[in-house]
Amino acid sequence: MNSLIRYSLAFIVLIALQLLIFNNIEFSGYINPYVYVMFILILPVAMPSWILLLLSFLAGFVIDLFSGTIGVHVFASVMAGFVRPWVLSLNVTGEASEPDMSPSAYRNGLRWFLIYSLTVVLVHHLALFYIELFTLRNFFHTLLRVLLSTAATTFFVVLFDFIRPRR
Fold first, then answer.
1. Does the pLDDT of residue 4 top 60, yes or no?
2. Which of 20, 121, 122, 157 is 20 to 30 A from 84 in CA distance terms?
3. Which pTM value belongs to this model?
């Protein structure tokens, strides 16, 4: 029950931060941080895939609902939730086998968490920005947006990971 409350609170806080603050941040049309992806990143390692995908869908749906986008964030969030177990299996450490373990820089190390979050955020942003445009006409311009936004989002995710409560 404690975990349910903790993850529900994380969901509400990250979605609120995204909608109230980070949706209004845009640097030169290139950098758009999407910190709500952190919710997908911090879910327990042993979470069943169908629940992970369902929660990823829910996070993307809420962002789409309040941002006026139609399914773009849903697609990107589900894609991030889909690749997360694969990224975890490539990046797993000895402590990652604990059933209720939530990935964090504190528990797994900064380097591990940085690689893990950078990979999942990159997949999310690739899906998000290319589906949003639905064209390959400005491929390199969009790729630059993806890379810069991935760097900004990963920075905020790692920063928030350091300030979130430890369990």
1. yes
2. 20
3. 0.91
